[in-house]
């Protein structure tokens, strides 16, 4: 999975490709244009001296927040005694908001705050959120009284829910700043104008990706085990303490950090194009775009010059010169950028519009992916999770680690072993195109849902026809089916993420104009957010539609038909495959002629 870098290099790890959006932008700025090297900025870079604080902060932050979020469904159902369908809906909404918030955080960071201040505020907000969440488990007055199997459990009070939601609000604020800013801030610490600085940036991405994956694995195993088998108060207190260490490490390195000033938001140029086109909507289309549209000399060494295309011609009106007073003397700039835009600006907006149909397929794709944090966990709770007889029991939320393992192991196998062979077959440097890899990921997610439906039907059948092995705290019988039967579907789901998620971000990165590449990460987070919202919407609709009779999503899965819910998502996935193929066939890559 190799692609040429902005400075002519090849990146060795897919993790780098996911994270190095700002790096190639910096390198393009150095090596682009006429080849003139810009003057070295008067900034003192400390490089690796600052990395223990940044990588340490990121590692402890991920250990704290990931270990908590992965097990929230179990916490809501077992400690707050929420119905499984309500907990799943709430968690979908929370995950969606957490994934949507980085868009706002990226805008505020780029336009006003700067990355250091955004990370400082976000880290403190995450710590406060973790503290409040720990208090809901540690203080008896902040959660319902514990109940035994078969007892009627009391509901949480409005005050208890208020404290819980306050903790969620602070965690969302933390996510808004940390997710979009942590990687670029780390890259800011290296001088992109020197060879050692460029090598340091690449090494930083490798270490970042490694610590990120390691933190996910530890969170999904050790921390979740403590929460599920030792104590919720201790299990949440450990991540809170780790989050505190993350804050301490971050602020300890303050004197070493390079803090770049905010550069402004690229969204302003987008809005200007729509505003100018709307003002001139009554004008006729130009007969000769080369002569009739405002196309001043392109002077940027960072942004690639885009030729005029014949798609979305209504936007071309934004570049029509309606009068001589709209252009400043010399003809290089408009008098009012809200009334006249350049062809370059218009074509950049067209690039974004062309991406939208392909991007929208990711929303439906994520409906399948998010099930691993909701109903897969609930299925695991009603399966036999013991290993080696009645000894060790796998925590239900830890099953997500199998998807992580599949994704982590597949990346080097594909990059090192398959890509060289695929090059010989396809004749393409990357083996498979970005759109082909996205399509494979969507298809694999549908296969995973089919497998999930089959396994869930087997689990339910065994629970109803054979002796059960216990009861959950919610009162549902535990099926004698070994929970490891769920591993294959999670492995396939992990493979689908390795294909789709990585190629998605790389696709946005390559197709979005260089100075708008911060939008690429926001688009991926927005996909995940809307996928969570759509999943929550489907859960609500199915629960209301089938609740009067045989509720598919009953509190006791043995009395429901979760397998039919999976079949429904698989059917939606088949529609998504067809829709994606149409979008991919229609798509025109950036730089292609009319």
Key features?
single chain, 594 residues, mainly alpha, Growth Hormone, Chain: A, 2 domains, 18 helices, 0% strand, globular, disordered N terminus, transmembrane transporter activity, transmembrane helix, POT_fam, transmembrane
Total E-strand runs: 0
The CATH homologous superfamily of the largest domain is named MFS general substrate transporter like domains
The dominant shape is globular
- Regarding CATH, which class of the largest domain? Mainly Alpha
Distance between the termini: 29 Å
Give the name of the CATH architecture of the largest domain: Up-down Bundle
Order of helices and strands: HHHHHHHHHHHHHHHHHH
Determine the CATH topology of the largest domain: Growth Hormone, Chain: A
Give the oligomeric state of the chains in this entry, treating copies of one chain as homo and distinct chains as hetero. Answer: single chain
Family: Belongs to the major facilitator superfamily. Proton-dependent oligopeptide transporter (POT/PTR) (TC 2.A.17) family.
Protein name: Major facilitator superfamily (MFS) profile domain-containing protein
Keywords: Membrane, Transmembrane, Transmembrane helix
Subcellular location: Membrane
Architecture blueprint of SSEs:
Elements: H1 14-19, H2 21-31, H3 51-69, H4 72-78, H5 84-113, H6 115-138, H7 158-188, H8 195-229, H9 232-252, H10 267-279, H11 289-292, H12 343-369, H13 375-381, H14 400-426, H15 434-465, H16 487-511, H17 518-546, H18 562-586
Main location: membrane
InterPro entries: MFS_trans_sf, POT_fam
Keywords: Membrane, Transmembrane, Transmembrane helix
């Amino acid at each position: 999975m190799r692609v040429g870098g902005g400075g002519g290099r090849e990146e060795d790890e897919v993790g780098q490709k996911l994270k190095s959006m700002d790096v190639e932008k910096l390198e393009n700025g150095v090596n682009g244009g006429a080849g003139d090297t810009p003057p070295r900025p008067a900034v003192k870079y400390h490089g690796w001296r600052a990395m223990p604080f940044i990588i340490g902060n990121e590692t402890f932050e991920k250990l704290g927040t990931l270990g908590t979020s992965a097990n929230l469904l179990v916490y809501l159902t077992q400690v707050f005694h929420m119905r499984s369908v309500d907990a799943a809906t709430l968690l979908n909404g929370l995950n969606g908001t957490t994934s949507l918030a980085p868009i706002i955080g990226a805008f505020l960071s780029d336009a006003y705050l700067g990355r250091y201040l955004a990370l400082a505020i976000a880290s403190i907000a995450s710590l406060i959120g973790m503290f409040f969440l720990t208090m809901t488990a540690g203080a008896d007055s902040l959660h319902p009284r514990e109940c035994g199997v078969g007892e009627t459990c009391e509901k949480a009070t409005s005050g208890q829910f208020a404290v819980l939601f306050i903790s969620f609000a602070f965690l969302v604020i933390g996510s808004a700043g940390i997710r979009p800013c942590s990687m670029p801030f780390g890259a800011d610490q290296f001088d992109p104008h020197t060879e050692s600085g460029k090598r340091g940036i690449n090494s930083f991405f490798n270490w970042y990706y490694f610590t990120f994956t390691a933190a996910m694995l530890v969170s999904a195993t050790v921390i979740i085990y403590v929460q599920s088998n030792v104590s919720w108060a201790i299990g949440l207190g450990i991540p809170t303490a780790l989050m505190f260490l993350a804050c301490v490490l971050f602020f300890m390195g303050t004197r070493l950090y390079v803090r770049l000033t905010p550069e402004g938001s690229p969204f302003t140029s987008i809005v200007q194009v729509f505003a100018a086109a709307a003002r001139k909507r009554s004008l006729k289309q130009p007969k000769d775009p080369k002569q009739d549209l405002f196309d001043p000399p392109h002077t940027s060494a960072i942004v690639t010059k885009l030729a005029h295309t014949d798609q979305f011609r209504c936007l071309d009106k934004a570049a029509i010169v309606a009068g001589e007073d709209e252009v400043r003397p010399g003809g290089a700039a408009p008098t009012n950028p809200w009334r006249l835009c350049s062809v370059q600006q218009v074509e950049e907006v067209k690039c974004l519009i062309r991406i939208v149909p392909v991007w929208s397929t990711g929303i439906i794709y994520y409906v399948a992916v998010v099930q691993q944090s909701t109903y897969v966990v609930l299925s695991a709770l009603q399966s036999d999770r013991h290993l080696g007889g009645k000894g060790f029991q796998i925590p239900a939320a830890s099953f997500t680690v199998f998807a992580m393992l599949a994704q982590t192991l597949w990346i080097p196998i594909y990059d090192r072993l398959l890509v060289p062979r695929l090059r010989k077959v396809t004749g393409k440097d990357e083996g498979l195109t970005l759109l082909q890899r996205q399509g494979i990921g969507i298809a694999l997610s549908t296969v995973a849902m089919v497998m999930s439906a089959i396994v869930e039907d087997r689990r339910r059948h065994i629970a109803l026809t054979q002796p059960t092995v216990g009861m959950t705290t919610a009162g549902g019988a535990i099926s004698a089916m070994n929970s490891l039967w769920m591993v294959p579907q999670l492995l396939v789901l992990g493979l689908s993420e390795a294909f789709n998620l990585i190629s998605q971000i790389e696709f946005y990165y390559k197709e979005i104009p260089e100075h708008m590449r911060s939008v690429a990460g926001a688009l991926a987070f927005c996909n995940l957010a809307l996928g969570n919202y759509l999943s929550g919407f489907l859960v609500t609709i199915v629960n209301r539609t089938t609740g009067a009779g045989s509720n598919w999503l009953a509190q006791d899965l043995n009395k429901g038909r979760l397998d039919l819910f999976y079949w429904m998502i698989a059917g939606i996935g088949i529609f998504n495959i067809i829709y994606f193929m149409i979008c991919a066939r229609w798509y025109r890559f950036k730089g292609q002629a009319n």
